[in-house]
Design goal:
Structural class: alpha+beta
CATH topology: Pnp Oxidase, Chain A
Distance between the termini: 28 Å
Largest sheet: 7 strands, antiparallel
Number of domains: 1
Strand order of the largest sheet: 2-1-5-6-7-4-3
CATH superfamily: Electron Transport, Fmn-binding Protein, Chain A
CATH architecture: Roll
Order of helices and strands: HEEEEEEHHEHH
Oligomer: single chain
């Protein structure tokens, strides 16, 4: 991912926190024919001593898992995004753009087919995503059914080797222009316009 210095998130703790907040990612890898494969997956972000681990599972009929053990992969965590019209600057010689945030995590994959390990990963994933539900799903109520399903999945454990965070929020424009963009985005209903406006406001407040 191309990241000009003004858009780079240098605080890795903030990047990790954002991954945990927005943990549904796109898992990309090359198969043996050098073709890029991709699967959309929920991830558990786990800090293990000094290492950052990403844990997930995919369906066994999905061929992507068969050629990735021990290889490098990329997980993309897309964030909010919004179109920025140059008309909002109310100035000549300007162009429109797109503001967005994104995280790219590179890592080494270990595939897991051991039933006990997979069970723990599935339960951990369920517990994480069921938090806050008024009537959370419980393994104990469906254990027999879940045990049958375990044979149909493969779990992945990915040790992160490089983490890149990008926040393109008009930092290369003046405060005056950015304030105009924020005002316009707050009135937009498309994309993640209002969320981008809030992120832009936060950036301005940090700098001021």
């Amino acid at each position: 991912m191309y990241v000009p210095k003004e858009f780079k998130e240098t605080d890795l703790l903030k990047v990790i926190a954002e991954m945990k907040k927005n943990s549904f990612g796109i898992f990309l890898s090359n198969n043996d024919q050098a073709k890029i494969e991709a699967t959309h997956l929920p991830f558990i972000i786990h800090e293990e001593e000094e290492n950052l681990m990403l844990i997930t599972h995919l369906a066994k009929p999905n061929p992507q898992w068969k050629t990735i053990n021990g290889k490098e992969c990329l997980i993309i965590f897309p964030g909010p995004h919004a179109y920025v019209s140059a008309s909002w600057y109310e100035e000549k010689n300007t162009v429109s753009t797109w503001n967005y945030t994104a995280i790219h995590a590179y890592g080494k994959v270990t595939t897991i087919e051991n039933q006990d390990e997979m069970r723990q990963i599935v339960l951990r994933t369920t517990d994480y995503y069921e938090k806050g539900q008024s009537n959370p799903w419980k393994y104990e109520d469906h254990s027999e059914y879940v045990e049958k399903l375990l044979s149909g999945i493969v779990c992945l454990k990915i040790e992160v080797t490089e983490l890149i965070g990008k926040k393109k929020l008009s930092q290369n424009h003046s405060i005056e222009r950015r304030e105009k963009v924020i005002t316009a985005l707050q009135n937009e209903e498309k994309y993640s316009s209002k969320e981008i406006a809030e992120l832009m406001k936060a950036k301005i407040n940090v700098k001021s």
